[in-house]
Amino acid sequence: MTLSIAITGKSGSGKTTITKNFVKVLKETYPDKSILLFDNDLSTELAHSYGMDVRNTIYGIRSGKHEYKTGIPSRMTKQEYIEWALEDIIVEVEENVDLIVSWLVASKDCRCPITGQITYAVKKLIDRYDIVIFDCEFDLKYLHQLVDIPMDVTLIIARPTEESIFLAQRIEEFSAKYAAGGQMALVLNNVNNEQNAKVHDYLDKYSLEVLGIIPEDKDLIQHSIDKNSQIVEDAIRGFFFRLNLPQMR
Q1: Is the pLDDT of residue 224 over 70?
Q2: Cβ atoms of residues 154 and 8 within 8 Å
């Protein structure tokens, strides 16, 4: 069974930074497990953080605009072709860690055959990995349009402002029916000491509880592209034990 983790939140909340540093903690905890990073954010920022300008996406397969690295094998069914094409766009970012980018996804209302074929192929791909981490576009609804699988953990990332915490409440509300009963938790990012009092007032106002707090890291200004941060990594390590992660196979 694949462990599934979704990182959600408003654009600019720090989802990609947290996702990338979360991978380091997962690799430290489960060194022999395979990880698939699923960039479901329209900015494709996760791929950029690994220094990759990824142009080949699941949308490219759907639209027929994908540029294949190899020649297309002959005598395949349409389903076999889509599964082969997904393999062609997977990028290895480090040992035991692969990345795939979705970009635009089709509406659930679309009844064209390729929508179901892509959904089936994506599920089959995910099942090959021990862990999959989704860097999501806002909430789980957009991801659900591409693939409908149970989420073991959904982290909602918010900055320590009233607007961001209000949006976190909305994301929790919008995502609840797609989380399939898995753990859903709020992580506050980029918090400094001066903000603590106001943050607690906002949390009380919107009836939210915090799983973890990530302190402000001013050095991220110099690492804005690669998203590496020892402060973020240590903070994730500090609340990692609070995650309701199922026993790994």
Answers
A1: yes
A2: yes
Residue in the block written with tokens 């973890």: 212
Question: Coil, strand, or helix at residue 125?
Answer: helix
Distance from the Cα of residue 193 to its chain's centroid: 28
pTM for the structure as a whole = 0.92
CA 42 – CA 206 distance, rounded (Å) = 28
- Residue 198 makes CB contacts below 8 A (sequence gap 6+) with 160, 162
Separation between Cα atoms, residue 27 and residue 113, nearest integer Å: 37
CB atoms within 10 A of CB 122: 22
User: What are the DSSP calls for 16-36, one per residue?
Assistant: HHHHHHHHHHHHHHSTT--EE
Mean pLDDT of 105-127: 84
Are residues 67 and 56 in contact, defined by beta-carbon separation less than 8 angstroms?
A: yes
12 phi-psi bin (left φ>0, alpha ψ -120 to 50, beta other): left
CA 139, 154, 128, 21 dihedral sign is positive
Percentage of the chain beyond pLDDT 70 is: 94
2, two tokens: 């694949």
Rounded Cα distance, 69 and 61, in Å? 13
In the predicted model, what is the mean pLDDT of the chain?
A: 89
